[in-house]
Amino acid sequence: MIVITESGVLMSSSGTEIEVEGRVARRRRRNREALISAACTVMAEKGIDAATMLEIAQLADVGAGTVYNYFKSKDELAIAVLEEMMHDLALQIEKQTSSVDDAARVYAFGIATVLNEATNNLNWKQLLYRSEVIADALYRRMGPFAIRDIRRAVEAGRFNTPDADLVWRLTSHAIVGASLSINAGQLAGDVKREIVIRLLCMNGMGADEALALAPAI
Fold first, then answer.
1. Whole-structure pTM over 0.85, yes or no?
2. Mean pLDDT on 130-147
3. Do 63 and 57 meet the contact criterion of CB atoms below 8 Å apart?
4. SS3 of 102, please?
5. String of b and e for 140-154 (b: at least 16 CB within 10 Å)?
6. Angstrom distance (rounded) from CA 58 to CA 66
7. N-to-C CA span, the chain
8. 152: which of 63, 73, 103, 194 fits an S-S bond (Cβ 3.0–4.6 Å)?
9. E strand spans, 135-210
10. Which pLDDT does position 75 carry in this prediction?
11. What is the mean pLDDT of residues 96-109?
């Protein structure tokens, strides 16, 4: 049996509080999701600098001032957009590698996919120059997936690294730096597979083994 206390909290018959998303919380969640989706569309078309909070609010169908109830600045909203894109990409990678038993191969495919996305996807390229926050966002949002795969590869004897967290942090920064250099024309695009090989070597692999593991990009 479920009862409602005088303060409006739902309680089970055992006295356990039941968390229920109220109308206000639902509205806030929907508004935030709508703003991130609208910002992704507008920023992809115009770039971060040219996009305005007003047109983002209009596309999200919320009041102009409402945006600032969720994001203090356009930069903060841009970071939220990027983080959602990163998480979505991590889920795509997980789906595409669901039938792969070799965790090292899953990880190799993942970092190759991220590098390819950062150098080809317009949304990523327009946000990439904000490198002071992107590497940290990449570390946090894709980290649970990447660190898990590194640890599984270590357990399987494929990788030899004592600190999966440190490796992924270094890898996140390396991917951002390399992608910026490729997009700026400082590195040739055909060097991407070599970058993946070197990043795999950070896990204690030899160059020949990493070469065999790195997917074509």
1. no
2. 92
3. yes
4. coil
5. ebbbebbbbbbbbbb
6. 11
7. 57
8. 103
9. none
10. 86
11. 97
